[in-house]
UniProtKB/TrEMBL annotation:
Subcellular location: Membrane
Skewed-composition ranges (Basic and acidic residues): 912-923
Alphabetized UniProt keyword annotations: Glycoprotein, Membrane, Transmembrane, Transmembrane helix
Protein name: Prominin-like protein
GO cellular component, one term: membrane
Main location: membrane
Family note: Belongs to the prominin family.
């Protein structure tokens, strides 16, 4: 809220006060009095300060700033002048091709289940704690007798699986042999059963259901076996190219690391050396420039520029004078010419006044005249004369040049005194560079040796491996295909057996149905035979794959991926010294950990013995660079006692400042010459004359008028070309000169005189300052200069230490190479191996169940019903002479019960012959060609039946189609 205005009816309240009530007169009076006193004091203080500033010299503010300037500013100035080189970046762009991409193609679930099974059954640690002890890099085993319980607990799962596989390999052929013998003796389901028993239907349903589940497991195993075998073949054939690609990435990494080191220690050093040597060569110039800048002796340079520019000022003034005279003379000629043309045109246009165009042109002709008074332009003759008096004897220029030379003599003296010290500094830097070059050669050689060592030992192995893979991988693949086909054939037999057994009819000796239950029986028994025959082979293959997969997983893949908790890695580090082998004081665990963290090669491989970065940081003292710089500073110590500007030169400059040059009104030239030279544009008037001439040519106008108009037009064109255009060009040139003179003569100040007087004052103060403090100032500048040189050296050494220790050779590419190799071997080869043996193992376990279910179900599917040939004739032969023996009935209730039990799966047209109760019968085969036309009627052994007669038959519906007499023996169901 703004304070209220002061008025006789209001108090002068404080800003922000909420009390606006009127005050007593006494209070108002005292407050107003204090306010007026404070205001007067403030105005007096401002007036004193303003007067002090005005009464002092014109450089008051600048001198105050110079006085407060310290040596730190000089140091910053030196550092600005001595900025470090623009180093070439050390980051080398390299392309790596090793891929860690792995696509299990639908087998991820199998691989995960296999790994979970391994983790449950087999301990992740390769050996139990305390079994292996390392002493003096020698591996020692504890007595096994004392560790048998621990070993049994640790390797119990592994031994269990091996024992199971051995038992399976032994039992499959043995059990198969005994089963075959049993079948040959007519047992174990070999003898067919003609009729279903009481609960056979339920048994078939339950057994078929379980066998379907078992077959599904086998089918899943078949799919997994084919896919894992394909994965194994692809992984095996691609492992050598993948490893070669990874080795190529290792070479790329080593080359990139060597290039980065070369850039840092060679290219960057040359850039650093060139920059520092260039600074040292210009040391005298740099120190002198700092001396002149700090003492403000640079003002002498401005004085020199002014004096050297006096000749140009004189030349410009002379040119301005000449152009002014030219314009004045030609303006007079142009004025006379325009008057004559004006009079001629006026008389001519009066004669054709009846023409509208002539009347229109008359108004423009009346204004035809010059528009500028060139006599009003300033005359610079007196200023030229004054300038000539100052510079004609050349004394001013000579004095200024002499003062400038006295300053340059300081630079020459500095150059002479520091030449020896500069050579010492260069020599020390060269010695440090040679030492750095030695490290470059050592490291580069070591990297090349590492690449050669890798190829020397790896290339033969890869070549042999590639040859073996090329020769034997197809056989391995076809072997896997064969094993998969065995599983497929077993699964196929079980599937066909189930389909035929479930959907087919019971076997009939007189029918030719190819998909009856008997076919299901035969397919199931075929599958059982294949399982017995292939069991030992599958068990042996499973055991071999199991041993290879498990030991490779636990000894190689798991340790390299879980190196922090791996006993294998710890055992390797404890028993094998990489320092003795390759000269690197590192451990495998530490290398893997640091490399996966993308640390530099210096950190990963502990290269302190190769490049001691602490020693590199001490190069400043080790190669006496610091001493050489101190000596350089000591030599920059010369007396500074100079006379920059003589008194006579100062007098001449004073005369120049007091001359009328600064009083020339340059704006007048611009103001006068900006207007057009004529009041009417001659080109426009010429065009109007053309229009008038065109008009009068079409009318009855005397030729004399036409001729006069034509002559006037010709005169105007001549004046425009010969007078107006040159005068306009000279006027523009004069304006440009005047503007440039006005700007340049001020030298960035308010006026020419102010600029000269300020420069004289600055030169005098610089001279006094150099005479009093020049020597100390030079010493301080020399100290700052050497500090700047030292800073560049330290910056480069810090750059070396930082990049070698952190940035160069970052191990990310090697980490990717290791992961790519593990992917090519552990993921693309070992995972399929483990998946394949796991599939075979569970298939073998499923075989035992499948064999039992198949045998039981096959015996049920083997049961059949039969009829004998001639039955249809018998049924329709109403008058044949046959003996009909009625069978006794056992009661209606008993008949219904037996009918309900036997109705499923039975054709009531066939006799319910029971072999156990009625003795052995010869069953004819429907497919035997010899018995095809034999008598199919059963032998009449009536004494074996309880009722003394043959079994009763249910008559077919067709029996009632023949003429009577009809035969009805009663219900055909019997106990």
């Amino acid at each position: 809220m703004s304070p209220p205005r002061r008025s006789p009816s209001h108090c002068n309240i404080f800003v922000g006060s909420k009390d606006s009530s009127p005050c007593r007169r006494n209070g108002v009076f005292h407050q107003n009095e204090r306010f007026r006193n404070n205001l007067v004091s403030l105005l007096v203080t401002c007036a004193v300060l303003f007067a002090g500033v005005k009464l002092a010299d014109g450089s008051f503010i600048r001198n105050i700033n110079k006085i407060s300037e310290t040596l730190d500013r000089a140091l910053y100035s030196v550092l600005e002048e001595l900025q470090g080189p623009d180093y070439t970046p050390i980051n080398v762009s390299a392309t790596y091709y090793a891929s860690t991409r792995f696509n299990p193609e639908g087998m991820a679930i199998l691989y995960n289940i296999t790994n979970v099974f391994l983790d449950i059954v087999i301990n992740k640690d390769v050996y139990p704690e305390g079994l292996i002890i390392v002493e003096n890099n020698a591996i020692q085993l504890e007595p096994i007798k004392e560790q048998w319980e621990t070993l049994f607990k640790h390797f119990g799962g592994l031994l269990a699986i091996i024992i199971i596989l051995l038992l399976l390999a032994l039992l499959f052929p043995l059990c198969g042999f005994f089963f075959c013998c049993c079948r040959c003796c007519g047992n174990c389901g070999a003898k067919p059963q003609p009729l279903d028993k009481k609960k056979d239907c339920c048994k078939k349903f339950i057994l078929a259901t379980f066998l379907i589940a078992v077959g599904t497991l086998l089918l899943f195993g078949v799919v997994c076996a084919f896919v894992t075998n394909t994965h194994l073949y692809e992984g095996t054939t691609n492992v050598v190219p993948s490893v070669k690609t990874s080795m190529g990435d290792v070479d790329t990494y080593l080359n990139a690391t060597g290039t980065e080191l070369s850039i840092l220690l060679d290219t960057n050093f040359v850039e650093f050396q060139t920059t520092v040597f260039d600074v040292l060569n210009k040391s005298s110039t740099i120190v002198y420039d700092q001396l002149a800048r700090y003492s403000n002796a640079v003002a002498m340079t401005e004085v020199t520029k002014i004096v050297e520019g006096l000749d140009d000022i004189k030349s410009n003034l002379t040119q301005m004078k000449n152009i002014t005279n030219y314009l004045r003379n030609h303006a007079s000629q142009l004025n006379d010419a325009l008057r004559k043309v004006k009079n001629d045109l006026i008389h001519t246009l009066i004669e054709c006044n009846d023409n509208p165009e002539c009347s229109k042109l008359s108004s423009n002709v009346s204004n035809l005249d010059t528009n500028i008074d060139f006599n009003s332009l300033p005359d610079v003759s007196s200023e030229m004369k004054e300038l000539e008096n100052v510079i004609q004897d050349g004394y001013l220029a000579e004095s200024v040049e002499k003062g400038q030379q006295s300053l340059q003599n300081i630079e020459e003296q500095i150059s002479k005194t520091v030449s020896t010290s500069v050579g010492s500094v260069k020599g020390a830097i060269n010695d440090a560079g040679k030492e750095i070059q030695t490290h470059v050669v050592e490291v580069t050689t070591a990297l090349k040796d590492a690449s050669r060592y890798m190829h020397k030992h790896a290339d033969p192995i890869l070549q042999d491996g590639d040859r073996y893979i090329h020769d034997f991988a197809p056989y391995m693949y076809y072997g896997g295909i064969g094993i998969s086909c065995v599983l497929l054939s077993i699964t196929f037999c079980i599937a066909i057996g189930l389909i035929c057994g479930i959907c087919g009819k019971k076997p009939d000796p007189y029918s030719e149905d190819c998909c009856n239950k008997g076919v299901g029986n035969q397919c199931l028994m075929c599958g059982v035979s294949i399982m017995f025959l292939s069991g030992i082979v599958l068990a042996i293959v499973t055991g071999a794959l199991f041993i290879v997969g498990v030991f490779s997983q636990r000894l190689v893949c798991d340790p390299l991926r879980n190196y922090n908790d791996s006993k294998v890695i710890n055992l390797f580090d404890d028993s094998f010294s990489l320092n003795d082998a390759v000269g690197l004081d590192v451990t495998l665990k530490q290398v893997l950990s640091d490399c996966h963290q993308n640390k530099s090669a210096y950190q990963v491989f502990r290269l302190q013995n190769k490049i001691d970065l602490d020693k590199v940081g001490n190069y400043l003292e080790d190669f006496d660079i610091q001493g050489a710089l101190d000596d350089l500073q000591d030599h920059i110590d010369i007396p500074v006692d100079v006379e920059i500007l003589s008194p006579d030169a100062k007098t001449k400059l004073q005369e120049l400042a007091d001359s009328n040059i600064s009083n020339i009104n340059f704006d007048r030239f611009t103001t006068v010459l900006d207007d057009n030279l004529t009041k009417v544009d001659l080109n426009y008037l010429i065009k109007q004359l053309d229009v008038v001439l065109d008009t009068v040519s079409r009318r009855m106008v005397p030729e004399e008028i036409k001729a006069k108009l034509q002559v006037s037009k010709l005169h105007l064109e001549t004046y425009q070309e010969k007078l107006v255009v040159p005068m306009t060009q000279n006027a523009e040139k004069l304006i440009d000169i005047a503007r440039n003179m006005e700007h340049n003569l001020k030298f960035g100040k308010g006026s020419f005189k102010e600029a000269i007087m300020e420069l004289i004052d600055e030169v005098e103060k610089a001279e006094i300052y150099l005479q009093k403090n020049g020597t100390q100032l030079l010493s301080d500048i020399a100290s700052n200069f050497t500090l700047a040189i030292k800073g560049q050296v330290v910056d480069y050494l810090d750059r070396v230490v930082e990049n070698v220790g952190i940035n160069i050779g970052q191990c990310g590419p090697l980490s990717n190479v290791l992961n790519a190799v593990l992917t090519a071997t552990c993921d693309k080869i070992l995972l399929p191996i483990n998946g394949l043996w796991f599939v075979l193992f569970w298939s073998l376990l499923v075989f035992t169940t499948a064999i039992i279910l198949s045998v039981k179900l096959a015996s049920l599917y083997k049961k059949f019903e039969y009829s004998y040939a001639g039955e249809s004739e018998y049924l329709y032969d109403a008058y044949a002479d046959r003996e009909i023996i009625p069978l006794a009935s056992n009661g209606k209730a008993n008949k219904k019960k037996k009918k309900n039990k036997r109705q499923e799966g039975r054709n009531t047209n066939f006799p319910p012959e029971r072999e156990g109760e009625h003795g052995h019968r010869e069953f004819p085969s429907g497919s035997n060609q010899e018995n095809r036309y034999a008598d199919m009627a059963p032998k009449q052994q009536w004494e074996d039946f309880p009722n003394g007669g043959p079994p009763q038959y249910q008559r077919a519906p067709t029996e009632y189609e023949r003429p009577p007499p009809y035969y009805y023996p009663g219900n055909s169901e019997q106990h």
